Amino acid sequence: MPELRRDPIVGRWVIISTERGKRPSDFGQIVSARKTGFCPFCPGNESKTPPEVYVVRQPGTLPDTADWQVRVVSNKFPALQIEGNLDRRAEGIYDKMNGVGAHEVLIETPDHETEFSQLPTAQILLVLQAMRVRMIDLSQDRRFRYIQVFKNHGEAAGASLEHGHIQLIATPIVPRRVVEEINGCQFHFELKERCIFCDIVEQEASIEKRIVCQNSEFLSIEPFAPRFPFETWVIPKRHESTFEASPDDLLEAFAGVMKESLQRINLALNKPPYNFVLHTSPCNDWKDTRHYHWHLEIMPKLTKVAGFEWGTGLYINPTPPEAAAAFLREVDPANGNGSGNGVQPGASDAPVSEKPPA
Fold first, then answer.
1. What is the pLDDT of residues 192-209, one digit of tens each?
2. DSSP per residue over 30-47, as a string?
3. 103, 153, 163, 165: the active-site residue
4. Can 165 be counted among the known catalytic residues?
5. Which of 102, 247, 267, 299 is the most exposed place for a label (fewest CB within 10 A)?
6. Where are the domains of the chain?
7. pLDDT tens across 37-93, in order?
């Protein structure tokens, strides 16, 4: 029988439509046509992007030239522009302000063909460190209230360029979905004097059936009330409110579980398009860090949001998270295939501190 499940953080209900239950092989494969031709993110084309605002490059090389490992530039076609004042104002009953913000692109690797999960853990750590540096810098601007970090992988997920990249957008408001999540966390904390994400980590670790993988610092799970098939959350086990406050050792552990989670998704689902979104605390006037807990949400693009979802806000998910977690645990990232590897629920294949071969 179908179930309605309530997300314990924001109170959102979803329908787990077991009558439509799907395993990975039941989903139609979304294949993005390979584009050929010029790529502005490839080494040698640095002059075709705005100047770099952050870079990890070989010592002695000049800015905006090749021989870099990670590169961050302003988006050539920004959603928000960094120049100007907010000029908040009313138009009758309506509110508006100038579209002030920042929009940056983090190029993950010089290699055009390498997807995020194929990067060595050390390279993913460089990417996460670059995210941290740029978020700290952008948060110094008093006009900005929130910094959204996200990745669109594949044309169906909104990617317009194939070369691996992450985007950062600083906004002058705290987006509604973030406010809903913060309010849900605060309500739980005021009621129980505990962080709800810490409670989720403790409960999921104890029952194990929705765990995808883990290490000493992070837990990767299929959430109890997922909006989408194989929606995956990566959550710090210790209470951490703000991503940009994370030390290098925590980021290294995060890199390992991120990589393994995406490897399992790619192997189980035949490399689907996906989005991942970083949820972290707002910047500037945000003071209370006791109740909010940063995390990453990964959403493979396997189904489409249609009229019922738009009209009601209820999502229909044909794959129970327990079945999704079990299937993701069956694949074997170490051997690069989808055969079961006998890994116990929640047991990582290898310590995250081990570096993969170059």
1. 999 999 999 999 999 999
2. --PPPP-S--TTSTT-GG
3. 165
4. yes
5. 247
6. 3-27+52-58+68-75+95-330
7. 799 999 999 999 999 999 999 899 999 999 999 999 999 999 999 999 999 999 999
300's tokens: 């493979």
Distance CA 74, CA 168 (A): 9
Instruction: Count CB atoms within 10 A of the CB of residue 37.
Output: 4
Cβ atoms 291, 281 nearer than 8 A: no
User: Under 8 Å CB-to-CB from 259, ≥6 apart: which residues?
Assistant: 116, 117, 119, 121, 124
Bridge partners (DSSP) listed for residue 171: 146
Residue matched to tokens 């997922």: 226
The residue count for the chain: 358
Residue pair 158/275 in contact (Cβ under 8 Å)? The answer is yes
Dihedral sign, Cα of residue 50, residue 114, residue 278, residue 13: positive
Query: Among 339, 265, 331, which residue's Cα sits nearest to residue 27?
Result: 265
Angle of CA points 197, 263, 6, to nearest 5° = 30
Task: Say what the pTM is.
Answer: 0.89
pLDDT digit string (tens) for 287-336?
667 899 999 999 999 998 899 999 999 999 999 999 999 999 999 898 77
Report the CATH number of the 3-27+52-58+68-75+95-330 domain: 3.30.428.10
| Pick from 116, 129, 103, 230: nearest CA to 162 | 116
Output the CA torsion 31→71→241→202 (10° steps): 50
Q: Report residue 192 as tokens.
A: 């129980």
